[in-house]
Design brief:
The complex is a heterotetramer, with two copies of chain A (245 residues) and two copies of chain C (520 residues). With 245 residues, chain A is of the alpha/beta class. Helices cover 33% and strands 24% of the residues of chain A. In chain A, a hairpin with a 2-residue loop joins β3 and β4. Chain C has 520 residues and is of the alpha/beta class. In chain C, α1 packs parallel to α18, α10 packs antiparallel against α11 and α13 packs across α18. The two termini of chain C are 37 Å apart. Classes of the chains: A alpha/beta (245), C alpha/beta (520). The interface between A and B is large, with 39 and 39 residues. β2 of chain A pairs antiparallel with β2 of chain B, so a sheet runs across the interface. Bound molecules: cobalamin (2 copies) and pyridoxal-5'-phosphate (2 copies). One cobalamin sits at the interface of chains A and D.
Chain lengths: 245, 245, 520, 520
Amino acid sequence: MSRVVLPYGDTTGDGAVQLSFTLPVPIGGAAREAARQLCLKMNLENPQVVAMRDLGGGYTFFIVYARATRGVDLDAIHVPEVSAPAWSMQEIDRMVAEKIGRPVRVVGACTGTDAHTVGLDAILNMKGYRGDYGLERYQGFRVWNLGSQVPNEALVAKAQEVEADAVLVSQVVTQKNVHLSNMTGLVDLLEAEGMRDRVLLIAGGPRITHELAVELGFDAGFGPGTLPSQVAAFIVQSLLERQER
Amino acid sequence: MSRVVLPYGDTTGDGAVQLSFTLPVPIGGAAREAARQLCLKMNLENPQVVAMRDLGGGYTFFIVYARATRGVDLDAIHVPEVSAPAWSMQEIDRMVAEKIGRPVRVVGACTGTDAHTVGLDAILNMKGYRGDYGLERYQGFRVWNLGSQVPNEALVAKAQEVEADAVLVSQVVTQKNVHLSNMTGLVDLLEAEGMRDRVLLIAGGPRITHELAVELGFDAGFGPGTLPSQVAAFIVQSLLERQER
Amino acid sequence: MSLTLNIDPARVARARELAGRIVDQVQPFIERHTTTAIERAVVRLFGVEGKGPDEVPLANLVVEALQDGGGLARGAAFWMANACAQTGRTPQQVAEAVAAGDLDLMRLPLLPEAEIRAGAERLARGAVDRIRENRRTRDALINRYGERPAPWLYLIVATGNIYEDVVQAQNAARQGADVIAVIRSTAQSLLDYVPEGATTEGFAGTYATQENFRIMRRALDEVSEELGRYVRLTNYASGLCMPEIAALGALERLDMMLSDSMYGILFRDINPQRTLIDQHFARMIQAEAGIIINTGEDNYLTTADAYEAAHTVLASQFINEQFAHRSGMPDGQIGLGHAFEMDPSLEDGLLYEMADALLSRVCFPNAPLKYMPPTRHMTGDIFFGHVMNALFNLTSVATGQQIHLVGILTEAIHTPYLHDRFLAIENARYLFNNARHFREEFQIVPGGRIERRANEVLARTLGLLEEIAARGLFQAIADGVFAGIRRPADGGKGLDGVLEKDAGYLNPFYDLCLKGGGEA
Amino acid sequence: MSLTLNIDPARVARARELAGRIVDQVQPFIERHTTTAIERAVVRLFGVEGKGPDEVPLANLVVEALQDGGGLARGAAFWMANACAQTGRTPQQVAEAVAAGDLDLMRLPLLPEAEIRAGAERLARGAVDRIRENRRTRDALINRYGERPAPWLYLIVATGNIYEDVVQAQNAARQGADVIAVIRSTAQSLLDYVPEGATTEGFAGTYATQENFRIMRRALDEVSEELGRYVRLTNYASGLCMPEIAALGALERLDMMLSDSMYGILFRDINPQRTLIDQHFARMIQAEAGIIINTGEDNYLTTADAYEAAHTVLASQFINEQFAHRSGMPDGQIGLGHAFEMDPSLEDGLLYEMADALLSRVCFPNAPLKYMPPTRHMTGDIFFGHVMNALFNLTSVATGQQIHLVGILTEAIHTPYLHDRFLAIENARYLFNNARHFREEFQIVPGGRIERRANEVLARTLGLLEEIAARGLFQAIADGVFAGIRRPADGGKGLDGVLEKDAGYLNPFYDLCLKGGGEA
Ligand code: B12
Ligand code: B12
Ligand SMILES: Cc1ncc(COP(=O)(O)O)c(C=O)c1O
Ligand SMILES: Cc1ncc(COP(=O)(O)O)c(C=O)c1O
């Protein structure tokens, strides 16, 4: 079976798409045509340049509406999703007490030169995020939050020292793909230290998806809007699964 | 030779493009992936879904940034452009007096059910547009402005009656491509009446380009921002060319 | 306390008095006449629905037959009541018989006049009862859910297909819309009949039909229930069928209607006499139905310059208020229109917009003003347009507007897409909430730019009203006083539908609705 | 008349007095110490530029040599002046010789102290003359072109490549920017040296180097000439090299600099002692150069809640003002930072933002306040973000801010693209023009929400300042009073660069700049 969908404006299947971009072409009829042709190369139909603005220096900004012609088959989409059960803090704490019998140890950091601690703090600090308490508040967790700009080496050393069950990494700055090298660097280091199998490795940040994290060798990735309890539930569930094995 | 350009964000050749669209898919990981794949089908690279909003009813709105990969060759672009000399009202009036020897007669209308007279009035009324006087103000023109909602038949009849040199049509409403049928209908009618060769046929409106107008059998098309003097110059120049033939 | 202007009440009273005088000059003429549209409205109010041969609505067939036979000046009610009494049939059956050619209303023997009058009144009372029942239903629902805080978010749908409209309307409501307007198919105002049935093909809008009204009303009642708030429905009455569509709106519980002769005259070239006569009846029915009317002064500013022509808007609002009063409409139903249409490049434009919006507020303290967003200066630059709409949203909440037509960033491009509406609502809700008590927190500096602007607009309004009072309304319209558009009194479409009432003219609705026939 | 708040001046005076007391508690400590960065700044001011072996800047090599030799506590000026006099070489030649290992500054025989002092002062005077010359050039250009009306449009460029930055900066200027900020490569504040030369590779920004400063200054002078208005240049001094970068900014005619220890302490974990000592020298040089500093209080609100933590911003502004005064900086150069960072879902948020912005305005009437746009609550929804920026723009013009960092709709996504900046400038220019005289047209309702909010923030500020005065600034920072971040006085980076001044410490700039050494 296949369920192919197209973008929707006001009629099913109309394919309506809005685009904007700048071309290094001085404003004018040729620029408009260049913008149109660019859209045709995107397999778009009937591109309408609805605005054309002179940015100066021979650059022109365009706003275009057009129709997408190639739909997406929903049945062919399989996204790996984090399977975090919807447990409350109380449930998680009880589960840790009953089934693990000791607090879960987690170490978290913003690695490399990343100084954006707000996202990591949202997960780890008492206060938590949007009314959902952070891991420090859990009876079942012990948390070491190393803060910002932590070199991978320092993070791994700390994880080793406290015998961490899980290592949590936040990556916000993604320019020049610096997050990718930070993340793969960490995986390599953990493997070199023979620790990779002993810890759950979790990443988070506005441009992190579970799919990307798994691809880079992490156990899970969490994106925008993540709540601490989702992360806690994922960790506890994963540890329980490992216990059973 | 070829000069291929790509969109520009902050580095030459980065291909930066912004898109937004709605898919008939409930918000979630699969929706995000569907949006991503849709962009891949547009030959875009590295699509980043930066916003995903729930519109209700199983629809999701996306904002995406991505990189266009297929550039446009500027040297292969040839847009027919209206060649209207940059003449002032005074120059045009003098030219009409000296070389045509009688006022040029133009009939204008918003045809079909179109009631948007502002654009046509901008060209025809005394007052003009953005400080550029309208054709009524010219000594060298006589203007019949038929206003809104004029059937093609009435327009042709009037043109016949006053022996118009030029017929000016404004089309603002473009939904369901009603402007296209209005415009081709007019061409057919003029041809049926054997008048097509005797009048300059000119269209205008926010979605009219010279290219489109010519394709539909008009002599010229004028888009947003057109000034009356450009239209006057085009008319006079074309009439002079015809005289010479 | 709330943001207000220091304006001399005597000058406002003077403007109102002049407008009253202007309207009184034409009111006798209006009351002396009826139109084919009014008579068709009567027929529809009597319960006639559906089409005859050649797709012509039954109401048209009945009225045309009477017009052709020369009997229309006595009123359709007269003939219909007589026929019902004589044949024992319902109005619907009578109309169907007329359509089938089986019955000639004017050939039937006539009952004594008093009996006909009584029969007509009975038929009319049925309609009025249904209309009042609708009104009670609306009140009950609003009571149940609670009234929405102003400004109300007014959103348009315009797919051309009533069933797609339903999808868009319900989603708009879920996204926060308080009022849904179903945009009509382009130029329906020029049709001299109301199409029948559910329709799925329209240009840039969906035909206003009784069945479409019903479908959308049901859909909105459904979503109102789902959301726990009453979502209002509105459509357009203006045009050659104003009284008929007003009647259908009353019968199908529309909550608001765009209903303004001035719009039809100026922008649709409808004959001024015809539509002013029509309007008097239409508004009377709307008054009865508790329908808030919306007037179209905002449209002037799409053609004339908003900074220069603000006084034409205000003058027209005063006149429109008087016309509405003459139809028995209370202030609370008179949704006078105005707009945020100044050129965005104007220095201090925001302050002048605030001045104008406050001035309307001050002049019509009890009217549910309808405030229209920037349209004219919207371009394809959706980003800039979205910001213009934000200032419009701010001005609306800051000056206490009631009905807020939500500005859409793609105004210059297409009728709204699903997400255009979402983004627009989000913009408006952000502003309304983030500047909720702006009105209570700021005062206007006395004698400053805002106050000076308002006083100047009022002065020019008084001047214009004086001039119209001197010239007469028909002449003023012919002279292009509004929006610079000239419309002679005997030009335009629909004059052939106007006729002088016969001495024995019968139309029970005037009595029931206007002369103490209000809510029992 | 202009929009203002009814605030008791005695309470403002009290806040200022408390801040003065807080600063006086640490000022003696600051003045007793110097740092490696200050000494490198001296070396650079003496004209030393370029790198030695292993890419290490000459200034670092000289200062490290002195530190290793134990002579740094007398001041680099002392050794350099002696060396120049003894060898007859320029400071540059001396530094090169040190780098080459040909010269050991501390092994040279010492001239009599008075001679060394005189020599050092001569060298310093050369630098100060150049700095004053820059200042005169700036004044002359502004005089020629005319000063720009506030709020100034402050735009960032951040390509990482100085040559791409030039393209973006010149275009931004053409689009309307009044101030161009070249964003630094991520974490340059952690480098304990200033890179040399033109650079083309940076992360999320371009390295601050003397050559990059020069290139951009030239580019902006060029475009200033083209446009007929003076386009200001700014960069970041905060971090481990604050005094050095401040010196380079002074030498290369930067017009503004982000220069604030608190930022480094809280967000870069720089040692509090180190950076406060550095800041004293840095601001002194900036004062001399007529450079407007920008402080970083806005950043607190990216971490703490803007509604809750507004008083921490105000308290910090009072303290920062005192620190600047201690460096001889007049109010007109103290660009205190604050920000529009409240959650957009807050009811009346716009009014509270106005309250806070006005309060800063009232407390620091002569400071060129730097107002930062929404960043924290910006998401990938560029449409909504663009509207938030519109309200920020409105608030800025309505409350009379001076330096306006233009909010960019793609804040949550990437450093600005060419057209992002264009759209953002258009938004700001629209608001500034369309609401130009908002300030003169509105008054705040006495005792209303805005005034109550402002008084409450001031009350909490006073409470906080009392507490800090009681505890001492270092302890307060350690306790996490600002932005909830705890920084102990002996933690963080750079403490190893702090040293107590020797009795014979020599640094001629303190005398020239602070003690009556102002403009001749
Ligand atoms: C606040 C902020 C700052 C503050 C940081 C303060 C602090 N204590 O964190 C300050 C002012 C210091 C700052 C500085 C800089 N910033 Co900044 N900053 C931001 C800002 C405005 C908000 C980020 C934020 O706090 N979001 C709120 C949190 C709650 O969201 P979040 O991080 O996504 O976290 C959620 C999820 O992602 C997830 N999550 C996040 N981490 C983790 C970790 C784990 C383990 C898990 C499970 C989940 C998880 O859960 C969280 C809750 O749901 C953004 C713009 C924006 N609006 O996004 C720019 C932004 C991130 N900064 C940016 C830049 C470039 C910088 C600088 C490098 C600029 C410069 N050259 O000087 C500097 C240097 C900092 C550095 N080297 O890292 C860019 C990054 C561009 C890019 N994509 O690479 C942005 C996008 C702004 C921009 N358009 O340029 N910044
Ligand atoms: C003003 C206006 C109205 C006014 C018109 C008043 C009047 N006297 O013209 C009123 C309120 C009556 C109106 C009504 C409707 N409108 Co209207 N209206 C607009 C609006 C806001 C501005 C148009 C305008 O005046 N532009 C200014 C002029 C100067 O620009 P211009 O037309 O492009 O003209 C320039 C050039 O194009 C060129 N030009 C134009 N014509 C000609 C002719 C010649 C010969 C030449 C040489 C040059 C030329 O020169 C001009 C000067 O540079 C636009 C939205 C927008 N912002 O664009 C919607 C818009 C055009 N309307 C629209 C619609 C759908 C309607 C209605 C059909 C809605 C309805 N269902 O009820 C009605 C019915 C009208 C009808 N049947 O035509 C849509 C059209 C959608 C589409 N693309 O098809 C728009 C885009 C709004 C929207 N998003 O839905 N409208
Ligand atoms: C008062 C009024 N009536 C009617 C309309 C629309 O009527 P039409 O169907 O002619 O487009 C408008 C449009 O703005 C209006 O303002
Ligand atoms: C006062 C101040 N200094 C410096 C910076 C940036 O410094 P860094 O190079 O550490 O990112 C900022 C950033 O906002 C700031 O506000």
